[in-house]
Amino acid sequence: MSAVGSAQNAPGQGGPAVLGAGTSGAAPRRRSLTSGRGGLWFVLPFMVVYAAFLLWPLVYGLGMSFFDTSLISSSQSFVGLDNYRQLLDDPQVWRTLGITLLFTVLSTVPLVLVALVMALLVHTGTRGQWFWRFAYFAPFLLPVSTVVLIWQWLFQGDFGLLNAVLGWFGIGKVGWTTDPDLALWSTILLTVWWTVGFNFLLYLSALQAIPATVYEAAALDGAGGWRRTLSITLPLLKVTTGLVVVLQVLASLKLFDQAYILFGGSGGPGGNAAPILQYVYDTGFVNYRLGYASAISYAFFLVIIVIALLQTRLTSRKES
Amino acid sequence: MATATTTAPRPLRARRAGRPEDGGIAGVRSPLWVRVALATALGVLAVLWLAPLAWALITSLKQEAETTAVPLEVVPASGFTLQAYASVLSNDNILTWFLNSTVVAVLVTVLTVALSAAAAYGFSRTQFRGRGVLFALVLAGIMVPPQILVVPLYRQMLAWGMADTMAGIVLPQLVAPAMVFILKKFFDGVPRELEEAARMDGAGSLRVFLQVVVPLSRSILAAVAIFVFIGAWNNFLWPFIITSDPGLMTLPVGLVQVQSSFGIRYAQVMASAILAGLPLVVVFMLFQRQIIRGVATTGLGGA
Question: Which of A9, A96, A303, B140 is the Cys-Cys partner for A276 at CB 3.0 to 4.6 Å?
Fold first, then answer.
């Protein structure tokens, strides 16, 4: 992933999940042969880009958060912790953070469960493997704009497919993107459709890594299909589930793209679908208050780190 | 991997247990009703997941006036037409954005793979002062969500004169610490004998890397490349922030801008949405196996 990578599932960004693996140092023996010289030159090009476009903005942004930096005026003064003090009293910060956390919880549950069901079903070996994988994974490959344009059309009140289908069952029209109570749910629906294929793949490859001998032994002992699923497959998927949940929570917390485009930047009816990253965007790029926007970014970063640490503690405790 | 453990006694057991590699629920010997139920569940999910795409495609092939017919029609009265695609493609902007997206995605992929692979090799196989500290720094970078950096990065790019430039779009996307981590883990597992043989022959580090290590690592490099390409082609936030010149926009950014100018011309909106999504979907149809393996291996950080 890149420093400014796609906001989709943001796979590979799951820091805590991968940090656990050891970093083996080169063996000191036969050093003259194995460890070539000029190592710094291999590392340097990456480190230059890394320093310029990740480390420096990280430090620079932290600095900005202590100033009342604005995009429109060049004068700025040091305000210390004022920005941070202000955000604690800013109801919009708490509201958008609440929406983000709500979205994270409500989207992670279906994104993990549906992916698990899909993977278990496909793994049964029912004919048409290529087709099932295509159907479940293809949406993940679409750009967010394509996804949102398609769903805006499905959600459309008078001519949209969803309301037409509801009509067949005698259910009246629903304001998918106009009803304040539904806006966040519509965002969740779209997100599940779009990104569940990624978790599905992670589960599927975990299933395929379970040695066939385990099932053979169980079958010899007379365990039927359901029995094998319940007492072998699901327990073996515990570790994978831990990783998928951690990655999904981190990805869901970063909600912005689809919510922003779906509601044309308005945050949805009554602002009910505005995540905190949209508040950062609005503060920085609509109201030009870059210093305050940075402060909100870093406060949110702190929240993400705390959630990530809590999750890693929970999953590692479960494993041991 | 999974099959390596079973060798000789396998056929006999396999016959008794049905097809155990099929997994837990439906071996060949499952009752018919179980197999029918499973296929039905798979089918229902597939219909639900493909319906939005199918409906977008159908809409894009209709006359503009017929897209809003009530009750909705799957096959329009006057038949299907490619009119919407013709209008969309006659819009110069869309072709420009398509080209921009391709250039950005290819540049980001090639450069990211090159930078990350070289760095990973350096961390895995060479000795220099500060190696441990630098690698720890790279690992820490995996924790930083790109979205957090958008505000300072934008101001930095303004100051460096890189706002609204190709360099401004591409450069920040090259930082992929997670990919360095994945590749280092792979290089750590590559046996050193071949490299040593090449070194004995007098090859320098760079030649060993390019002529011995890179060919051995084709599959993991392809996996990383696939992953990076998908991310770059679909990236919205950063190109959206850094470009205001329509001539520099990528497809995902341009589409959102043009949406309003299409108004309620749904056939054209769907046609443009499909054109933006098509390339990766077609590539996926051709290389499903490789892409699935690539995403699965990189997705968990190489775990």
Answer: A96
